[in-house]
Write a structure and sequence with these properties.
The protein is built from 13 helices and eight strands. By secondary structure, it is α/β, with parallel strands linked by helices. The protein has one domain (60-332): Rossmann fold (3-Layer(aba) Sandwich), CATH 3.40.50. The chain has an eight-stranded mixed sheet, sandwiched between helices. α1 packs antiparallel against α4 and α1 (9-21) packs antiparallel against α12 (305-312).
């Protein structure tokens, strides 16, 4: 059982200073307009509307940078028959202790890379751990191949989902002192990563006990054809049926009974984020399906991860603690 934290105003003040600093570190370009429900939303609408040139996707990131105490690591993918990179954060005391830890799989947004969460998320998590707000936790920062949406591509060139499910998770459980049960495994993401967290978390409830969607790129899963320059076309091509079936909303419907019984869910989005309508729609669907979840609209926040996490404060870490405690207690029973 994870012990309850002991916090003081001084401790939370330190964490508050770190949260404030994140306001200027957002990985996503700031969006300045209020949400427009009539605007189609790809997994990263603020990025996709400009159709900006994205960096080259590489399974083995040539940049070995590992900010804020993370470590650059690789694993051998059987799916790809090649090495794949990722970053890992090990909590304070990991090298000295023998205990096992829960794991958060952190998914970055479109156009990003495995280092994004190391600058926007890991410093806040580490402060929360040190101040007792969050239990010591391993974080795996996934290489999402820039624009994979964390799904297997229809052309077979980017089997992102299979690499994570069949290769990365077993590798992590074999390589680190993890609590390998689903109740101690979290999937969380921002923007495209939020879509990916919903897609993988809802599709594989037997693997993930907690799913957190932050400003998820939850485009309308319409069966209508989409433009070839749309990021989703790059993943699914003209296979509209598969694209619709992969959407978190459709997976929530399909696996409602399993999610209702065993999965902790949280959705958050900024009130000025263009992706708000899709997140609101998922919230309403989960409510209709009777799937318990937390939902928060963060006031005065556009699509910018630094601002979002600053405004969100410690809530996501408090949610994780509560879920990890509950799941652990239920397993003991």
């Amino acid at each position: 059982m994870i012990p309850r934290p002991k916090t003081t105003p001084l401790h939370l003040g330190l964490l508050g200073l770190l949260i404030a600093a994140m306001a200027v570190i957002g990985a996503e370009p700031p969006q300045t307009s209020a949400p427009n429900p009539s605007t189609p939303a790809s997994p990263d609408t603020p990025r996709a509307t400009s159709r900006r040139i994205l960096p080259k996707a590489e399974w083995l990131d040539r940049d070995h940078g590992a900010p804020n105490g993370t470590q650059y690591r690789t694993f051998q993918s059987k799916v790809l028959d090649r090495e794949v990179s990722y970053l890992v954060y090990l909590p304070p005391g990991y090298e000295q202790e023998k205990q096992r830890y829960p794991v958060i799989y952190l998914l970055h947004g479109m156009g990003g890379n495995q280092r994004d969460g190391a600058t926007t998320y890991v410093p806040l998590l580490e402060a929360a751990i040190k101040e007792g707000v969050m239990p010591p936790t391993i974080v795996v920062l996934v290489n999402g191949m820039v624009k994979s949406c964390y799904c297997d591509s229809s052309n077979g060139q980017c089997p992102m989902e299979s690499v994570i499910i069949r290769d990365l998770i077993p590798h992590v459980d074999q390589s680190y002192r993890t609590m390998a049960g689903r109740e101690s495994r979290v999937i969380e993401g921002y923007s495209m990563g939020g879509y990916g967290a919903g897609h993988l978390g809802f599709k594989y409830p037997e693997l993930f006990g907690t799913v957190v969607i932050n400003a998820g790129g939850l485009n309308d899963p319409s069966p209508m054809n989409i433009p070839e320059d749309d990021p989703m076309f790059g993943v699914f091509g003209a296979d509209n049926a598969r694209r619709v079936a992969a959407h978190p909303r459709e997976l929530a419907r399909k696996n409602a009974d399993r999610l209702r019984a065993q999965t902790n869910l949280r959705i958050g989005c900024g009130s000025l984020d263009n992706l708000l309508p899709g997140n609101q729609a998922l919230h309403e669907l989960l409510t209709q399906l009777g799937i318990k979840h937390e939902y928060e609209v963060v006031p005065d926040v556009v699509h910018n991860s630094g601002i979002y996490y600053r405004k969100l404060g410690t809530k996501v870490f408090e949610f994780h603690r509560k879920c990890l405690q509950t799941q652990t207690q239920n397993k003991v029973k």
